[in-house]
Amino acid sequence: MTSQETFEGLVVRAKGADYFAAVGGGEVRCSLGGRFRLDESREEVLPIVGDTVLVRVEKRREAACLRGLIVGIRPRKSMFVRTDSSKRMNYRILGANLDRVILVFAVRAPDLNLRLLDRMLVAAERGSIVPIICVNKIDLAAVRGDIEAKIAPYERLGYRVVLSSAETGEGVEELKAAMEGMLSIMAGPSGAGKTSLVARVQPGLELRIGEGGTKAGKGRHTTTHFELHRLDIGGYLGDTPGIREFGVWGVTKRTLASYFRGFETARKECRFAGCTHSHEPDCAVKRAVEGGSIQGERYESYLRILETLPSG
């Protein structure tokens, strides 16, 4: 005999055809209702990690276990998306309904990559997610002032910047305060120290999200999938696999500037309404770059991204 009830749940991970939803204080293993199987090639119609879903829970009395059927998805308030590097799809949704995306970059090993940071900031801005820039391994900085100067333009644009060290614990309390009660993910290049920071935020959690490497006896933790973990301080945290490249998706040449902080005032003064701020005459953004009110390096980053985007 069985009994059924419908609950609201949070998708915390997916494995094959199974989805795991946090429902109340527990977790329910779910499969998809029939309507989702009509078009499994479209990721946006399938549940993804971070979705709030309607789960029809079936309790088998003879087995005393819970199984669920996902029968609906609540509207998403945000999505963190990039192009799909595997080319199997046009895009890859990294998480839904996120409140924070903590962009973790190292001082060195690997070096701080501001071009990659700018791409990820565009994705966060487009996805309606609050980005936090975390510069990790600050204890390895040869001259701390150089790093502070390099990241200062982002602080002037209103981005929250946290200098951190998983080794010394610097910045960890600030990160915890930003995550408390929130749905957050950490994203950044491999080797930036995301998993080590997670261990500082909640000791023991890194053992669940990392896999110890065995090659050459290095034992490096590497996250190979994405899931959300409940934090003791409240909220959830996900650690994404290391990102080697990040293609901007869902943005065109004409809309890119609207996701670049610092361009707001100048772009409204351009001569042409559809100005891409690259080759057009009488462009107020280019004048702002020449006058120093828009940083030259950030404008170059804008142009690099612009080259990869479709017209429209």
Q: SSE string, helix = H, strand = E?
A: EEEEEEEEHEHEHEHHEEEEHHH
Q: Tally the helices: what do you get?
A: 8
The parts where pLDDT drops under 50 for at least 5 residues are 211-224
CATH topology of the largest domain: Rossmann fold
What spatial order of strands do you see in the largest sheet? Answer: 10-9-8-11-15-14
Q: What is the CATH class designation of the largest domain?
A: Alpha Beta
Helix and strand composition category: alpha/beta
Approximately how much beta-strand content do the residues carry? 25-35%
The helix content is: 10-25%
Q: Give the strand tally.
A: 15
Name of the CATH architecture of the largest domain: 3-Layer(aba) Sandwich
**CA radius of gyration:** 22 Å
CATH H-tier superfamily of the largest domain: P-loop containing nucleotide triphosphate hydrolases
Describe the protein.
The structure is a single chain. The chain has 312 residues and is an alpha/beta fold. It has three domains: 2-73, OB fold (Dihydrolipoamide Acetyltransferase, E2P); 79-239, 3-Layer(aba) Sandwich (Rossmann fold), CATH 3.40.50; 256-307, Probable gtpase engc, domain 3 (Ribonucleotide Reductase Protein R1, domain 1), CATH 1.10.40.50. The chain contains eight helices and 15 strands. It has helices spanning 114-126, 144-156, 172-179, 194-201, 206-209, 264-267, 284-291, 296-307; strands at residues 2-15, 18-23, 26-32, 52-60, 65-73, 79-83, 91-96, 100-106, 130-136, 160-163, 182-187, 211-212, 221-222, 228-230, 235-239. Strands 10-9-8-11-15-14 form a six-stranded mixed sheet, sandwiched between helices. Strands 1-2-3-5-4 form a five-stranded mixed beta barrel. The chain has a two-stranded antiparallel ribbon with strand order 6-7. α1 links the parallel β8 (100-106) and β9 (130-136). α1 (114-126) crosses α8. The longest helix is centred in the middle third of the chain and has 13 residues, at 114-126. The N and C termini lie far apart (57 Å). Mean pLDDT is 88; it is low at 211-224.
